[in-house]
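Colleagues,

Please find the record for the two-part complex below.
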Amino acid sequence: MSFSPTEPSRRQKWVAGTLVVVYALVTILPLVWIIATGFKSPSDAIAYPPKVVFEPTLEGYVNLFTTRTRVSEEDFAALPPPSSWYEQIVRDSGLVIAGPSRYGARFANSLIIGFGSTFLCMILGTAAAYAFSRFRVPIKDDLLFFILSTRMMPPIAVAIPIFLMFKNLGLNDTHAGMILLYTAVNLSLSVWLLKGFIDEIPVEYEEAALIDGYTRFQAFYKVVLPQAATGIASTAIFCLIFAWNEYAFAVLLTSGTAQTAPPFIPTILGVGGQDWPAIAAGATLFLLPVMVFTILLRKHLLRGITFGAVRK
Amino acid sequence: MAQIKIQNVRKDFGTFNAVRSSTFTVEDGEFFMLLGPSGCGKTTTLRMMAGLELPTSGQIFIDGEEVGQRPASQRDIAFVFQMFALYPHLNVRRNISYPLHSQGMPRAEVKARVSEVARILDIEHILDRPVGGLSGGDRQRVALGRAIVREPKAFLMDEPLGALDAEFREHMAEELRALHDRMGATTVYVTHDQLEAMQMGDKIVVMNHGVVEQFGVPQQIYDWPATKFVAQFIGSPPMNFLEFEGTVGKGASEIRLGEAVIAVPQQLEGATGALTLGVRPEHIRLTPDAAYRGQVLASEYLGTTQIVTVETVNGQIKARIPSTVIVKPGETTGLEFDARTLTVFDSETKAALLSVANKGVHGHG
């Protein structure tokens, strides 16, 4: 084996590899535990010592999507046989299904508000970042600082003013209100991140497009946007994760129509005892969209910004 | 193809004045060099021709049409960037065809044009490659392809060879010049390299501090610089300056340098005070019995010639003489100047005084 001063040695590689694997395990363990708990029976979920091997059941998921009720023994015996697998699961625990839970609707709210605000944030953020990056904007540096300064206090500090403002504007517990709010909170970060990415794109590309007979707007979306895809993708992931997981404003400003999943999931705790499998099931499903979104955009995250068409 | 006329063009960036009242004309089919040190305003001038900057005042005519305030997309010119600026997300073929798509040209015609251009530039084999992995020379060719494919009114090039290796630059310079001769396209080329300008250009504009110092064919500029800046910027080693206090009378054909009398072309302009005699290194001969004397400091051997540095009472000068002449550092020698080639400058205004020799070049007076 030849020795190279730049290539890490076999031992360095081994140490680095081990560290990465250990770190990955530490990070993934809570996730694995949550997912596993979702498939446990309520007694397995609280068993001590904790059960690593258990008999999987879909009870948690059924409980997550249904509301159940107890009926008298005569009525229970008089019921027709269960018509579906999930009804069977509920019957096995001595209950009957009273109706669907609100989890589906809350989950849909999360999707609408999370992706809606991310989308809006990307449009406004890219436009603003492009302007800040390319045009001579008066007092540019001050403006950029003002924009960032909105993130310098804890968002909850402005919760009460926002609550009162939303009340007057009729935005309380509306999708539009929550989309606006999350967009406003995320915009400063996305303008800053995107400006960095757009600054990296040499202005010559647009100039070349202008010379080639395209308008500035065409140059922007045909040349700048494809180049900025990496930056837009990673910024979008940040924005979505924030909007998706946000709890405090959601508790305060939504209660019904526009309530998102984060404030809803803990309410399961109150219904029929501490139903940990149902909570774990709710959390597992809640993880999926962000995971899928991140995996879809992963190749943009990993790819370099430019790949050598410009010599610097 | 077209003539480009620049009239009293001025460009300010805030309080900074980048180009000050420039006027010159690029004739149809000319290979035109914009030459100057960095920061002299040559790139800004080129970008104003392209429409990437709009002039603060003045007019730009392309093909007789005033386009000064029009955006780049409406000027029908091609621009070759120093960094090439190939679209990194498109392959070679798409890069070259990109300007044609903006004109809404039919597919079949686009294809025909691209293959024609690829054939001219000898890049047919890389048409379907991504631009990322190309060598410097191939990127340069693709950038040229994108420029020539739409048959524009003029080519504007901003130091297009600046990003290439020295070895390859020479080759590309020849290729560029050959391409120009073949297409007869009006080309404006920005460079800070005086050798490149002399070698490739039909005409040169020399700029400094946003001002056009001189405008003409390479040999005129080399032989009869209009200002001390041009004299020093062009040529390697540059023109020698012998500073002296004195008088040149109108109609005089000699000047006094200390004890020596030096013959110069007959002067059409007189001046008194601080003056400078400009002499190119190759117009100096070392003659033992000449009246004007100096002491040899050093000699650099360059093959067939050598550069000899001589200390005189009017400052150090460099002479280019055949290497067969033997010179020893420390010895005192006489210096003789070729009278037909000398220029007298006014040290105050830094401008050349008009003589019978340079009046053909400097129109004024």
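Chain A has 14 helices and two strands.

Comments are welcome before we finalize the supplementary table.
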